[in-house]
Amino acid sequence: MCENYKICPQPLEEKSRRPFTLLLLDCWQREYDRRPYRNFRFNLLEFENRLRRKFHPVYDFLVVVSFLKRRTLCTVRLTGIHLLPYEHDVLLSFIESLVPVSRIELRLMQLPTRFFELLQNRGARMKVKDLILEGTIVTTPDIEALHEFIIESKILRHLNVSNCSITQYDFPLLADAIYKSNSIRSFVCNRLMGKRITLDTTKIAHTVSSLIWQNKLEELEMQKCEFQSRDMEIISEYLKTPQSKIRKLNFAYNCIGCDGTEYLFRAIVLSNTLTHLNIGSNKLGTHGGRTVAKYLSSCYFLVYLNITWNHICPDAMNLILTTIKKPLKLHRLEVNGNQFDGKSASILRRLLDAGVLTQEVIDIVSVFDESIFDYRVTRYD
Question: Which first-to-last residue range defines the signal peptide (predicted)?
């Protein structure tokens, strides 16, 4: 071995200086849409992989803004862009380009407070009906400006602030804007933050109940908000009224347990207005599965049910499967991730063979396993 060890010189990778132009952006859009372009998409990672250089938040972003102004778009979807707070002219030009767009998706972005203030000032002019900020960090000043924009807008129908680091202290202000809005019908707010302390889910449940009691929201999604069974008791009090307009409810990845399931399904049976329910990964257990089997046949208007990954034992799952009869109202039943046995496979085969269920309705299938010389239940993709 040579004693004088020397590192071999490595060839330096030349940084790309390829310019970003309108023509290049136009060519990229052909992968997502057809002329005349109506659905614009731009992803920061795709940009850096193709041009092999960093995205400039001013010069490159102005090319995107220029493209938005030249086209009559229905949807704008931007992902991963970091906007500078002191570039007022850039922010103003960006807001002006979004005025005629009906669906705006700003995912995983870093938006300064000035952006939301400019959005607030143009609330009456904006034509947006769906505003999606999923994964974009939203601070308290941002929510204060967003609060005024939601109230000012007369046509905003859908708001998605999932995984935006919204704390339990900012949530009431956001809920107040939805309460005062005359147009919002769908609200998505997954993953609330406690801000250094445990989430006070009771207060959050009371706030959610006030939104349901207003009889305006039609779709509500709050995953990973640490809801407990006692919170479902509060929410179900307003959910069980026949005047409730809630059609789709998504409380997946919480901890409502078997008692919370009892409260929810009792309210669904009394109101008979809910059509979609997602309570997957909620630790229902065996008792929760039996509760589902008890009330499922009485949920006349329920067309979608998700109870995946709830640790439901085979006996309870067999009860759920045996309650399925003609005429079937459910268009989709998702039960994957629970426990099944040979009897489950036999019941499922009979349901499929008799035409009570079609394979498109349920997410599991019965297959023959040569290792055990019997049928078993597995996931259907």
Answer: none
- Asked whether residue 108 is domain-assigned, the answer is yes
Which is it for the CA torsion 297, 251, 227, 204, positive or negative? negative
> What is the β-pairing status of strands 374-379 and 364-369?
antiparallel
| Domains contained in the chain, number | 1
Looking at the domain assignment, is residue 372 inside a domain?
no
Domain contains 129: yes
Domain that holds residue 32: 19-197
Mean pLDDT of 178-206: 92
- Tell me the C-alpha distance between 150 and 185, whole Å: 12
What's the pLDDT tens digit per position in 249-286? Answer: 999 999 999 999 999 999 999 998 999 999 999 999 99
> Residue holding tokens 């399931």?
261
158-160/186-188 β-pairing: parallel
**pLDDT tens digit sequence for 307-331:** 999 999 999 999 999 999 877 789 9
Residue 148: CATH number of its domain? 3.80.10.10
Q: Any long-range contacts for 57-63 (C-beta under 8 Å, 24+ apart)?
A: 57/81, 57/82, 57/83, 57/84, 57/87, 57/90, 58/84, 58/87, 58/90, 59/20, 60/20, 61/90, 61/94, 62/90, 62/93, 63/20, 63/21, 63/22, 63/25
Residues 6+ apart with CB under 8 A from 87: 57, 58
Give CA 172 to chain center in angstroms: 20
Q: Is residue 101 in a domain?
A: yes
Res. 296 pLDDT band, cuts 50 70 90: very high
Angle at 60 between CA 140 and CA 102, to 5 degrees: 55
| Rounded distance between C-alpha atoms, residue 36 and residue 133, angstroms | 26
Note whether 17 and 53 are within 8 A (CB).
yes
